[in-house]
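Predict the 3D structure for this chain.
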Amino acid sequence: MVSRAWAGKARPIRTLFLSDVHLGSRHAQTGPLLEFLGRWIPSQVYVVGDFVDGWQWRRGCWHQDYSRILNVFEYWADHGTTIHYTPGNHDNFLRDPEIARVIERQLGFVEIQDEFQADMIDGRKLLVMHGDQFDLVEGSAQWVSKMSTVVYDSILTANWHLSRMVRRHHVSPYDLCARAKKRVKQVIRFLSSFESTILEYARAKGCDGVMCGHLHTPIISPRGEMVYCNTGDWVENCTAIIEHDDGELRLEHFYTGDRLRPRSSRKGAAPMGLENWSAAAPSLNLMQSPSLNLVQGTGLIPESSMTEPSC
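Done. Predicted structure below.
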């Protein structure tokens, strides 16, 4: 069971939006994510795509942190949280209805759809989708995107080693990559008219704004009567968007950038430890999961990656 001390410190919130965790990539910042998740008790969660990285899973394996993250979601669901999942380009195998339904049944606490409409407490309606459908490169030359992912993975590795030498604990170990990727994504946004196109799509759906991921550029930006929101990612930026009970949408950063330590270690922020999550939530036996066997059959998750409990 969750200790009373932790239960009194985790903050209840209305909605948590997060995306681009990229489980399966060696650069996914699962430790910071677990610490961040332990700060909140949401009424509803929207996972906005690329939670799993099917493009890079061949080189990875199932890490214990992945099960711990799913245990957090299961614990929330057992206590009334509704969890919605919209796939992205890196986990687009979940756009296959057969795979999506099997995983829904196996996990038992998630609903998977291409799009959702999130009803805000202030009456606004936000279209929730990953957004890769409006990326010019993804739509016309996905091979370019996949090739650039291989190159970028090498750059991330170099950035990580540099960060270890510099030892700047108050910023993401991939801070330099985040800055570089922001410039690249600005070009993509310009060429694709990404934001204006996705907002027009949301308007046509009768929504007042959009909540997306994909670009790894966290932002909440009013656009006239509409609002454009991007949750960021958990590789370079470690960000999410939260709707509080008063209706405020707030962009939350795990790394402060201007302080000497992550927010989680400051007074007043008391995330649940990983050992407490393991005790509080039932362990998901994902190594024997039929849903993962089905996904494995697609070639996205190789047999060898499922034989070890951790990397």
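The mean pLDDT is 75.
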